[in-house]
Please model this.
Amino acid sequence: MERLMTLFSYASQTDIWAAVVALLTAGAEHVFSLVVFRCPCSPDLNFVYGLSFLLVPALALLLLGYILNKKTWILLTGTCRIWSCDWVTANMTALLYISNFALVAPSSWIAVALLSGNYFECAMAGTNVSSSYGSHLCEDTSDVEQCQRELFRFPCGKGSGVSEADRNQVMLILKAHSQILGWLLIASIMLFNLLLICLGRCTSPISYLQLKFWRTYTKEENSLLNSRIVEHARKLAGRNLNSFFTDTPLKPFRSPLLICGRRSA
Amino acid sequence: MERLMTLFSYASQTDIWAAVVALLTAGAEHVFSLVVFRCPCSPDLNFVYGLSFLLVPALALLLLGYILNKKTWILLTGTCRIWSCDWVTANMTALLYISNFALVAPSSWIAVALLSGNYFECAMAGTNVSSSYGSHLCEDTSDVEQCQRELFRFPCGKGSGVSEADRNQVMLILKAHSQILGWLLIASIMLFNLLLICLGRCTSPISYLQLKFWRTYTKEENSLLNSRIVEHARKLAGRNLNSFFTDTPLKPFRSPLLICGRRSA
Amino acid sequence: MERLMTLFSYASQTDIWAAVVALLTAGAEHVFSLVVFRCPCSPDLNFVYGLSFLLVPALALLLLGYILNKKTWILLTGTCRIWSCDWVTANMTALLYISNFALVAPSSWIAVALLSGNYFECAMAGTNVSSSYGSHLCEDTSDVEQCQRELFRFPCGKGSGVSEADRNQVMLILKAHSQILGWLLIASIMLFNLLLICLGRCTSPISYLQLKFWRTYTKEENSLLNSRIVEHARKLAGRNLNSFFTDTPLKPFRSPLLICGRRSA
Model:
């Protein structure tokens, strides 16, 4: 067990976070797909309903990823005054890094949803939107006209004028399309990540050892800074409250944290 | 139990990792094969669908193997400036080693998938792609023409014009082909690994004892280096924050980790 | 329980490993035979399919046995320069010992597979390959011609033109052959092992007491050597890192482990 923990400790903290987030998202998708999702089987609603289950949670998770990432706010706080093209190019790497981590949850949502296939089946069975796609789906059935007219009813297991076999066939094709899309998405995410990290590392002006040093430095600086901030805040609060309770004038208090202006952290 | 742990500790860390990764992959494949996979039984889709379940997860796992391996980044960081044929030949061994370890998960995926046979059955029952293979499959059935025409429906347990016995026969042959391929893959992976390690070790200029010494040396150097890096980083962070909070000029700080340029780790 | 532990502690570590490996292999064979194996019952495939389940896992396990055995690499590291007939005869004992241990898993696989009989039944029911064997199997049935023609279908429990009794009779004979082969294999492995150890011990120039002494010596030397290697590695790493961080020239470091050339371990 201890040995396993040692092995586990090799992975970096970011990797573990990413894995946890991806697993939680996949679980949430499964629960939603089983409990909440009911395809309306209406010609007008299918497409919007299916796509909203496929994309809106992904969008929400993306935004949540940006909101919860401390690095977003380190980067953005106070930048409205200095916003320019220079700023964007200078902080491109940080922006990319933040986006990449924020994309973990949404892309797992979409990938798992496409692999389970429910949302895609419902969305694509809406006849209004996918007329050419609908005719492609129905081309192997016995009555193409009827199949296309009833297509939007298929995800609910109904369809008066179409045989059970034809309906199952169409649903299997829809699921297959959804799952192929899901795998393609997963493969392209992996490929994109590898290339991105590869590019970043290959063009790095410093060696792996120095990179490791700067990472350790950031961590150490951060923890020291936090303890200094607490210390300064406690002192300032003590001085202010003392002055309030004893009704004496404020003593001068010098701290670089009280000087106006922006220092990038 | 303790005795077993002692026995267990003989295996190297890499071997244990490889075994854990292979087992997890096999388990994941089993779950996917049972829960997610539904052969579409459509003449156009079968081949693409089956192959995408067989190969795309393997590709994704391969890329993940490269991304998560620390050695990849030790090797690649900052190499764009010095990339050349010399570099490739000099680091061939390291590249081979990394690739070999990254291939553990994908090759287990493909091997287990071929042994369970579902994906291969689905892929090869697509008539469009495997016309000569399809005729070979159907040659022992009572109605060859009909069998070939309905071949793509077999994995779903349907097939109106073909007898149950013939269908089962064809499915058994497909499964047999898949499993024979799976065993061949496993045997060739093992053989390739043995030859690779054998070649590497046989042409080694140093003895086993020296190799063991250098491995121990690498481990010791690494742990010493880590403690030194933390120490330097803590000192530098303390100096910088002191200078920031007391508003005094920075004292000089000398460390080889701050000198630009590349030192292979 | 305690008594059992005492008995258990008499066995050498190698013996316990061998027993664990053999048991695991037998379990794996049982799982494969039940879950994965489906005889294709096709005249062309039966023989190849059955034999690939019987022999390929054994081959893979054999290669794995070589790869995971530390002694293989102690023997082979750096031998390409000195490979010759002399080398082979001089290291015959070590090679035999390694092979013998690597053969534990494959021979258990084959033995258990032959005792359960599934693979052998499937392989030998392929009529194309085993025509004379097929006629021998069918000689006691009511319709020999029909039996030989339908022989390949027997493992799947089908066979239109042959009576149930005849089919069962043939399957029992096949299973019996397989199990007799399995017992012969086990007996011959045991006999070969006994003779090999016997020969090695009988021709030994030293007494049992001296042999025991040398074994204890090897173990002690090994543990001492390990601690010395760790000590030297730690010293060398400390010297190198000191020189790197303080930017001073390297002090000389003498160790027999740094001298190039081969010393047999």
